[in-house]
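Dear colleagues,

As part of the handover before I leave the project, I'm documenting each prediction I ran so the next person doesn't have to rerun anything. This entry is a single chain, and its sequence is reproduced below.
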Amino acid sequence: MDRADRSDAWAGPVVRLTGVLDLAGVDAVREALLARLWQRPEPVIVDLSEVRIAHPGARAAIDDVHRTVADWPAAGVLVLDPAGRAGEAAPVYPSLDEARAEDEAAFRG
């Protein structure tokens, strides 16, 4: 699993995951997201546009992070997934524009 953390001028970071997300990579993804949110507590959009999810349990890692940071001041997890693979907790948006709009409304508005 590859990942890139890109902060855009718009307001908040987009963490783009690429490759295959399987059970072997779950801990690394979870730890990387939690570390990012701990170091800079602000809403993060997790972009799954270029990810193949090999096991449903792997997708649950992002929901685990969402639940973990739910009570942290200023932190949050939004998911960009054009395929619409809904999880159990983190809100999913089909486009970056929609995720950014929700970030603005919910966290910065």
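Helices lie at 26-39, 56-69, 96-108. The chain has three helices and five strands.

All the best with the project,
I.
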